Amino acid sequence: MNIDNLQKKIATPESRLQKNQNLINESYKEVLSGESYEDTVRAVDSIGALQGFRKKLQDIPFSSFHEVVEEMTTINRVQLSEEEKSESIEKLIIAMEERVGRMSPRVADLYMGILSEIKGESYEPTYDTTARKIDELKQKNDLRVLFSPHTSWGMKINRIETRLTDYLLGARALDKRDGKEMGDDIRKWRENELKKSSTKPPERRNESKPGVDPMERLKDGERAPSIWAIHPAYGGYYKEQSFSKWDNIRNVWTEDTYTYSDAETVPFCEEENATSGLVNLTMRAKTVTGKWISLAIPYTHGLHKIEASGKAISVQKDQNDDVLFLIEGNGVGVELNVILAPQPDKKFKSDLKSIRVPEMPAEFSEETNNKIEEIKSGKLGNIKKAQSLAFYTRSHIKYLAPKDRAEGDYYNNFYNTSSKGFAGAVDEIRKADCDVANTYFAALCAKLNIPVRHCIGHSVKGVDEYGASNINSGTGHGWSEVWDEIKKEWTRIDATPPGDSQLEDDEEQSEGGSESVPGDYGNQEAIGPTDEELEKLHEKLAKRREELSYTREERDLSERAGVEFKEARQIVKEINEAENTRLPNGERIVDALSLLFNAIVESRKSIASSYTGPVRKREGGEAIEDIVRHKIGVLSGDTDPLSREKPTDETKEEKIIGGFDVYIIGDKSGSMSNVVEGEELWKMQRRAEYLIFSSIHRFEKNLERAGLQKEDTLSIRTQGISFRGGGKDEIDLDKPLSTEFSVKDKVKMWHSLTDASGGNGDSEALGVIYEQIKDEIAENDRRGSKDSRLRLVVACSDGGYIGDEDLRMQDLAERIGKLSAVVVGIGLTNTAANVKEVMTTKYSHGDIVRDINDLPMLVAKYLIQEAVKLFPEKAKENAEQIIKISLEKFST
Question: Do 827 and 846 fall into the same domain?
Answer without folding.
Answer: yes
